[in-house]
Write a structure and sequence with these properties.
The chain has helices at 6-34, 41-67, 99-114, and strands at residues 71-77, 81-88, 91-98. It is α+β, with helices and mostly antiparallel strands. It holds the Pfam family YhjD.
């Protein structure tokens, strides 16, 4: 049983996912810059604007974590799982994440930040 409330756990998970998303966007940006697209600037602008939005959200997340003394650290990684240490109010909890789950969540965030955030629900 976890002692970390769901809101704080969600914020801590954002601190895992958002840097992964930035890494993917940065790699994609480099691929597009090297590609043979005739009009690549709109794609570059889209990715750069998306990266700015993700960086803004990551800054908010890190500020929240700092103010509430929340910490997260990657402990171990293998082919199937990645283990993180969550520190909350002096409690240490280890959480294992299935790597395909991490990938799927980052893909969902990529879709959200690229285009779904602009649609009205």
């Amino acid at each position: 049983m976890t002692r970390i409330p769901e809101i704080e756990r969600d914020i801590m998970e954002k601190a895992i996912y958002l840097p992964m998303l930035l890494t993917i966007l940065n790699r994609d940006l480099q691929v597009i810059k090297k590609s043979n697209f005739k009009l690549k600037q709109p794609y570059i602008d889209l990715i750069e604007n998306t990266m700015n939005a993700v960086q803004t959200e990551l800054k908010k997340t890190k500020n929240y974590m700092y103010k509430h003394a929340l910490k997260i650290q990657e402990v171990n990684r293998d082919e199937a799982f990645t283990m993180f240490l969550f520190i909350y109010n002096g409690y240490e909890e280890y959480h294992n994440y299935f790597n395909p789950r991490l990938r799927n969540k980052v893909q969902e965030l990529l879709e959200y930040y690229l285009y779904k955030r602009f649609t009205i629900s």
